[in-house]
Amino acid sequence: MTGRRKNLGQPEEVIRGDLVHSAVVRLGDLTVGRVVQEPGWHWKTHMQPLVGGEWCQVRHVGVVTSGRFRCEFADGSSIELGPDDVFDVPPGHDAWTVGDEPFVYLAWEGLRTWATPIGVGERTLLTLVFTDIVASTATAARLGERAWSDLLARHNELVRAAIARHRGHEVETTGDGFLATFDGAARAIRSAADVRTGSRTLGLRIRAGVHTGEVEIVAGDVRGIAVHEAARIAGAAEPDTILVSEVTRALAAGAGVSFGPGTVHQLKGLEGPRTLYSFAGFA
Asked: Distance (Å, rounded) from C-alpha 170 to C-alpha 258?
């Protein structure tokens, strides 16, 4: 068996709540997260209204990297945690950040249970599309702020129309690009193709990445390794290119979509090579 490695600087999931956020990776059945609880965070204030009960009923195991934290137990005892403390906090406690420094720790037990009320949602299979305007900074500098704003607004309008036309859902805009999800691989590719065609009429060039995978949906946002992979695919695309993952190509193959030959890419932060295909047109 070979070793496995993942990096919390490139998380598979980011969970955000009120004064708390966590970067998460998974190795098999082990979930590890770096949790940051800001000054002022208190279980009874920020978690109890979500989960109910008088005390937190999650066991937490981890190690402190910075900041301080205090736990008070149902029996009246308490402990305070600080840098380099390795801890095992049993169920039946209240807890809060001490002082004006964020409390940061690495956790490998209790993370999923703890995180569920603040942002772990339903998992589903979707096709994701990232689009990005090529050389947007240079174009903005050349046109000037007002002309660029007008052009970007027209571009965003045509992107949103393409997403809606192919029954997609806009997740977010990144300033000069979009992330959208679709329930069909071919519809996702057709939407990206419409965006490319429309952008050309505006004198803009785009790149796009399309990937199909399982994601977690939380409050309209999408999370998971598939999102990161789709973003990396878009980053690997050349100008005017729609780059598609192998799984998306297979799903769209019977829908009148054609592709160029596969090329092997090593995507940053992802283990193993990926074979990607450029969209060539419709049959």
From this structure: 25
Residues 71 and 137 reside in one and the same domain: no
pTM of the entire structure? 0.62
Q: Tokens 């704003």 belong to which residue?
A: 149
Beta bridge partners of 238: none
DSSP helix/strand/coil, 219: coil
Range of the domain at 80: 13-119
Give me the half-sphere count of Cα atoms (radius 13 Å) on the Cβ side of residue 88: 0
**Under 8 Å between Cβ of 68 and 81:** yes
Residue 1 pLDDT: 46
Q: Give me the CATH number covering residue 160.
A: 3.30.70.1230
Q: In whole angstroms, how far apart are CA 66 and each of 83, 84, 107?
A: 5, 8, 13
Mean pLDDT, consecutive 10-residue segments, the chain of 283 residues? 78 83 80 93 89 86 96 94 96 95 91 64 85 95 94 95 95 89 96 97 97 80 86 95 96 91 90 93 86
Q: In what order do the strands lie in the sheet with 60-66?
A: 13-17, 20-27, 30-37, 103-109, 60-66, 86-89
For residue 42, give the DSSP letter: B
Query: Distance between CA atoms of 278 and 283, rounded to whole angstroms?
Result: 15
In a domain, 43, yes or no: yes
Final residue before a domain boundary, out of 119, 143, 164:
119
The one-letter amino acid code at 76 reads: G
